[in-house]
# Entry
Amino acid sequence: MTLAVPSSSPDVAGTLAALDPASRAWLRRLRGTGADRDGAIGELHDLLMAAARHEVHRRAGGGRADLDDLARQSADDALVAILRKLDDFRGESRFTTWAYKFALLEAGVKTRRRAWQDREVALDTDAWSRIADRGDTPDQDAETRELLGAIGTAIEYSLTPHQRRVLVAITLDDVPIDVLAERLGSTRGAVYKTLHDARRTLRAELAAGGHDR
# Structure
């Protein structure tokens, strides 16, 4: 895999001057060429691998041979993302702290996807009715029943089928956003926006019906 040297923005020099020496050295080497850059990339990958391995084993419980492969994939993807976003680093933390976050994010995403790879995600537009069913108990007070009924009605008549699928999958079935995005052939950002719009619509409908408290 060939990793291109990222271009520098005009304000890079000013940013570099404000960084701690270690962070400044990382950026200088990663923006360089030749053996020094290759060495920096190798060292950074080792750090990312250690962070990703720890996170993958922490989330998955450890003890499985395939977890190291998952950690390596996470470190590889984190490295590519970091090299593409070097100009985004502003020195608000040490460079290695900033870089670790990429590894932890990738490890979290891949671990969640692995946990759901053999599980079915039921994208049922009528599954919203389970909201009311969950709270239908003998000791449930009238106010709660009324609120659940209002939520169910708002979900049925105010949301699009796609919004219902996303809302139910995430809030009732606990499907991670990145997993749902993969199953829908979408992106995390698009799914999050759908969820945000659905919640906003529900809040408006409930407020209009006097259920805003």
Summary: The longest helix spans residues 34-60. The chain has a mean pLDDT of 80.
